Amino acid sequence: MLKRAFDFILSLSGIILSAPLWILFSLAIILEDGWPIFYRQERVGKRGRIFKVIKFRSMVKDAEKDVGPVQVKENDPRVTKAGRILRATALDELPQLLNILKGDMSFVGPRALRPEESEVRGNPEVLSKKRYE
Asked: DSSP string spanning 42-78?
C-alpha cells in the first residue's frame, strides 16, 4: 500500500513537472514524422498480466511491421533524428510515468519484459511470479 502511494505521488509529480518536455517532444515527433506521438508495446507484468507500455515514438511509423521486433543497432535507419536524442537520454521512456500512475508498473522492481523475451526465459507466468516476489 505504501509502495503504491509512493508510485502514485511520484509519477503524478513527474508528469506535472515534465509537462513542458512532453509538449516539446511531441512537437518534435510530429514535425519530423507526423502522428502518432506515442508507441505502445506489450509487456508482461506482475502475475503474467499483459499490459501496454507507453513510450514516445522514436522510430519511423510501423518500424517493426516488416521485420518484427529487432534490437535497434547503432545508426539504425528506422530511428528518427528526434528519436536518437530521446533514446540517448532515455527520455523516450518518460510516458511510462502514465503506466506507473495507472498501476501497470512501479518505480521499484524488475523491468517488465516483452512477451517474447519472457517466453525465451521460460513460462511467462512462472517467470513473472519469480521476478516479482
From this structure: EEE-GGG-EEEEEEE--B-TTTTTTT-S----TT-TT
Q: Which cell is 101 given? A: 500512475
pLDDT tens digits for range 5-53? 999 999 999 999 999 999 999 999 999 999 999 999 999 988 889 999 9
If you compute the radius of gyration of the chain from its CA atoms, what whole number of angstroms results?
Answer: 16
Domains of the chain by residue range: 2-132
**What are residue 39's DSSP bridge partners?**
55
Which residue from 109, 108, 105, 133 is spatially nearest to 44, judged by alpha carbons? 105
> DSSP string spanning 2-33?
HHHHHHHHHHHHHHHHTHHHHHHHHHHHHHHH
> Cell digits for 108?
521499484
Angle between helices 81-89 and 19-33 (to 10 degrees): 150
